[in-house]
């Protein structure tokens, strides 16, 4: 790639970079780096697309507050975002039953049999849905 006023290449030790100033849609495409020495060559590809990056959620998985939660995320995008949608789906949360799990039953010959217990929904009004 030939350097231009907007595109310059730089090398500092083993770090090489292409700097593109004032990115334009004409800069979008696939870029590849080919490194070669006496033992062989290696290639690595990168796409500059302008599409937004996947969201990175920044919130802790649990709230510090008992009755509120602040969900935050970050998206990088070349042009300003035109739309942001957050999808939501209810899930059924199960809480352990209030009774204790009995010990394993043991037969007279020493064989142990598993026992089971039931769980109750955290909120019976919650269900699975889209």
From TrEMBL:
Keyword vocabulary terms for this entry: Immunoglobulin domain
Domain Ig-like, residue spans: 1-49
GO terms under biological process: homophilic cell adhesion via plasma membrane adhesion molecules; synapse organization
Pfam families in alphabetical order: I-set
GO CC annotations on file: axon; neuronal cell body; plasma membrane
Source superkingdom: Eukaryota
SUPFAM superfamilies assigned to the protein according to its UniProt record, in alphabetical order: Immunoglobulin (SSF48726)
Residues passing through the membrane, by range: none
MF-aspect GO terms: axon guidance receptor activity
Record region (Disordered): 98-130
InterPro entries in the cross-refs: Cell_Adh-Cytoskel_Orgn (IPR050958), Ig-like_dom (IPR007110), Ig-like_dom_sf (IPR036179), Ig-like_fold (IPR013783), Ig_I-set (IPR013098)
Listed name of the protein: Ig-like domain-containing protein
Organism listed in the record: Nesidiocoris tenuis
């Amino acid at each position: 790639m030939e350097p231009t006023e907007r595109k310059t290449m730089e090398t500092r030790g083993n770090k090489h970079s292409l700097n593109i100033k004032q990115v334009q849609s004409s800069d979008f495409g696939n870029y590849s780096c080919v490194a070669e020495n006496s033992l062989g060559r290696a290639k690595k590809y990168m796409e500059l697309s302008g599409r937004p990056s996947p969201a990175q959620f920044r919130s802790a998985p649990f709230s510090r507050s008992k009755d509120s939660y602040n969900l935050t995320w970050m998206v990088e995008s070349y042009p300003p975002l035109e739309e942001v949608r957050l999808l939501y789906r209810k899930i059924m949360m199960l809480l352990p039953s209030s009774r204790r799990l009995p010990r394993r039953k043991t037969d007279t010959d020493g064989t142990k049999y598993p026992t089971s217990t039931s769980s109750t929904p955290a909120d019976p009004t919650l269900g699975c849905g889209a």
